Amino acid sequence: MTPEMTAGMIEVRPPAELGHLAQDGVTLDCHFAFRDYGHPAPLHWGRLRVLNRVALDADAAFRLAHESAVEIVTIALDGMVAVLVDGLGDSLLKPGDCHVVSAGAGVARATWKTGGAPASFLHLWLMPEEEGGEPTIGLRRGGDRMGQAHALLASGFPADDPEEADQGRSGDPLPLKARARVLRVALAAGEQAAIPTYADRCVYALVVAGHVDIAGQEADAGCGVAITGCETIVVRARDPSTLVICDSD
Fold first, then answer.
1. Which of 10, 51, 52, 171 has its CA 20 to 30 A from that of 154?
2. How far apart, in whole angstroms, are the C-alpha atoms of residue 24 and residue 40?
3. How many CB atoms within 10 Å of residue 217?
4. Model pTM score
5. Could you count the other beta carbons within 10 Å of the beta carbon of residue 20?
6. DSSP string covering 32-95, please?
């Protein structure tokens, strides 16, 4: 899938260049065009159509209606978030949990809401390989595997499918209907990670916390980094750091 951003192999987008939307106790930091945040925002990077950091005040809610043909990945950051999807049930997310709504032919309504305390989470929306099909949801608890340097949260590759591997452990990645992987990388100060990919793929990294050198570029908390044309992406942490990375075609 041809990238919309064409500034080069690596582009760092600091928080000041992102979209910022706020209404009714909901604040969004948007890396791509979303609702009232439009031109000159990029439309997507590979199959990644939306990357928003969502902050909810206490007793606030973020709502979507009539979504279809999209994979919505939620990664809980702080606080407790309830996810309610019409016809598919409810889930309560704690920090580190990952949730996927595969909208398929259509979901009438989906809601992310807090109780008596604020919370924040990430939303990644991915364009699927094929449209249609029954909508589904999936939940991956943080578990002990979240403490490792690499945690594969969700994947659209059969080789990563726990059913294919006959595993089914709580730390296995959630399935996606897109040829993409969503990873969480946590590094102590001075540590580094080498993330394999392919030169024709589109990688987008969000520095959730900390300060890193990634693919030769400095990036602070809140920065997004769009990368293509690399076969290995090296991340070095200057401070204790956490990143969420999407690798897609």
1. 10
2. 25
3. 13
4. 0.92
5. 12
6. S-BTTB-TTS---BTTEEEEEEEEE-TT-EEEEEEE-S-EEEEEEEES-EEEEETTTEEEEE-T
